[in-house]
User: What shape does this take?
Amino acid sequence: METLYRFPWRSRNQASIQQSQYNQRNLHMTAQIARETQLQEAIARLPRISLGWLNTPLEPMPRLRAHLGGPPLYIKRDDLTGLAFGGNKTRMLEFSLADALAKGADAIVTGMAVQSNYCRQMAGACAKLGLELHLLLRPEREIDKTQITGNNLIQRLLGAHVTVLPDNDRARQREAVAAKAAELTAAGRKVYIPRQEDTVDLDAIAYAEAFLEITRQCREQEIEPVWLYVAAADTTQAGLVLAAKWLGSPLRVRGINPALGDDYEARMARMANQAARRLGLDVSFTEEDFDNDRSFVGERYGVPTEAGLEAIRIVAQTEGILLDPVYTGKAMSGLFQHIVTGVIGPDEPVLFLHTGGAPALFGYADDVLRVLD
Assistant: This one.
């Protein structure tokens, strides 16, 4: 008869190993929570006003995943921040307009594109806070000079004083903003121009907090996305990467840029470093910390791409979620291509950060209709 030998010390050794692993996980989690708390407390020390509906939902996209045949897909719904149709700028305005009020401002002057999501949400915030808003807007398309729809309609409805400039010249736009600010100041107004060199990091801090929110939601839902995709050119990605590096998160942030240019990574590094100093966090950044893809811009900023429009249609018809033609549609088209071509593997779950912008669909109706025919 075969003799069966038992080795009880092996089971004891195995239990010891399991206990050690458990202890290590607990130590790691304790350290993680401590860094989360430190970040949260640093942000809480800043002046802030409440404008949005936070936290925003984080939800799966099973039908989109089935359509693409790729990895698990999730979406962070910052299109649902609530203020004037919502979007990522609402988080930012909670900090920048708190700074404006702390400095005694009674008028805001800024300038973006005619169909700017930033200006729409700024108009909503200024209406809510009783601040006078002057917008000096550049036309990205010829139709922007005459068409009042989408964001350009909403910001007027919200009481903004809107001037559409004669051409798409950013240098002249900056001059026009400065001239309007000087005019109002001479008339006795206390003017605040947001997104200046010494305050733009406040916008990034808003998305450091958003990353913290995402981290906690993923833990609560027991999901572990590998990638975070987002339409981003500066402050949004700067803040996300700031928090990701501070927290030691394995979640990799990939920005899909809506505009062409060569210095985005350097700008984001400056913003993240400035934000870290404001928060008192011992962390620093270089250009190499930022993964920012400009290959899905198409012709230029503000002009839709066919792939972006098709992504808008697919997401609308699989998940009932509305993207926009300038930012999130292009970003989603980048995600689609990376899944289809294997840049993202089938075992690498992706979280898409929806930064809003759906009202711009009405400003690009003819383009959107092309993919519905």
